[in-house]
Write a structure and sequence with these properties.
332 residues; Jelly Rolls; 3% helix; 2 domains; mainly beta
Length: 332
């Protein structure tokens, strides 16, 4: 079976309960089909995070860097005139608002948050169309024209890629760990596996560990004399941060070993544990913190019925008395 299993030792003292906060940007008010666009560099903030926004007054003024929230719905215009639209048309799960970010965008975490668990990511319409079709400045991905590859790579089979790398900072210093997400990947030996992302997908950045800010760097195989030719934009939604040791939650000291599987899950979540004679409660919540399923584990095996739940991110809270543990799960 192709199952990714989470195995947890709940007796390890380093396992702390963490409070999760998800920024979905729905609290921002915008005119229809518009974007955050002040004519000065003014950051905006939401639950757990501050997003930088840079404005340049040259040439009549333009959005020069950082991030901007938007409700733009344009999945067809693949030019510079459409900086904010996404190929997925709307935000994650068809929400109204989402964020578009540029190369080098920075997000600072608000106290007490110190970890970016991840977020949903997708291509802007502009980048997607350029990757698929090329334009006057960029070539169509896979196309060997202009790559100086000679005859070693067949036409249409160039191993192109477009990716976002997240790097964390702590006390002003860049940490060594990084997280990478490929928005387009044409590096497969079998060209039928080549893809360009046009849906919202989860970007797991938990590997960055404890940080106070995160910066995004964009890379493409299509590079010219002035740098990357692929439009350096991506979109994000449901930005998830967490804080360690929230008030009222103790370090977990369950005398048990637990497995929760599969992850991603479908119609069922299965739980297997070895208990010390006490019951363990499992509560599944959606990104808004609403309970959607619950089970009391008094024996070694239990399961949660999730067949009626929509696809997306969920949090499984495990508790025994005042001790808690939170797991992040995804439904396909």
């Amino acid at each position: 079976m192709n199952i990714r299993t989470i195995l947890l030792s709940l007796t390890v003292a380093a396992n702390f309960a963490r409070a999760q906060t998800v920024a979905d940007f729905e609290s921002f008010t915008l005119a229809p089909n518009s974007a955050y666009s002040p004519t000065e560099s003014t950051s905006f903030q939401t639950a757990g995070a501050v997003f930088n926004y840079e404005w340049d007054n040259s040439f009549g003024g333009f959005w020069a860097g950082g991030s901007a929230y938007t409700n733009k719905q344009d999945s067809s215009t693949g030019t510079f005139a459409n900086l904010y639209g996404v190929k997925a048309l709307k935000g994650y799960t068809n929400s109204v608002n989402y964020v578009v970010a540029q190369q080098g965008a920075i997000v600072k975490l608000k106290s007490p948050y110190d970890k970016v668990e991840g977020f949903y990511i997708t291509n802007t319409t502009y980048a997607y169309k350029v990757i698929k079709n090329g334009n006057a400045f960029s070539r169509k991905f896979g196309d060997t024209t202009g790559t100086k590859s000679g005859t070693t790579i067949p036409q249409g089979a160039y191993p192109d890629y477009f990716k976002v790398t997240a790097k964390g900072y702590k006390n002003g210093s860049m940490k060594p760990d990084s997280a990478v997400f490929y928005l387009a990947d044409y590096r497969f030996a079998n060209n039928t596996q080549d893809y360009v992302i046009n849906t919202w997908e989860w970007f797991n950045t938990a590997a960055l560990g404890s940080i106070d800010s995160v910066q995004f760097f964009m890379y493409s195989s299509d590079v010219g004399s002035f740098g990357m030719n692929t439009p350096a934009f991506f979109a994000l939604d449901n930005f998830s941060t967490s804080a360690p040791n929230p008030v009222g939650m103790k370090e977990t000291k369950f005398n048990a070993y637990l497995s929760v599987y599969p992850n991603p899950f479908g119609d069922r979540i299965k739980l297997k544990t070895v208990l010390d004679g006490e019951s363990l409660e499992a509560v599944l919540k959606n990104v808004n913190g609403l309970e959607v399923a619950r089970v009391l584990i008094s024996e070694s095996n239990a399961e949660l019925n999730t067949e009626n739940l929509p696809a997306g991110l969920y949090f499984l809270e495990l508790s025994k008395g005042t001790e808690k543990k939170v797991l992040k799960l995804i439904k396909n």
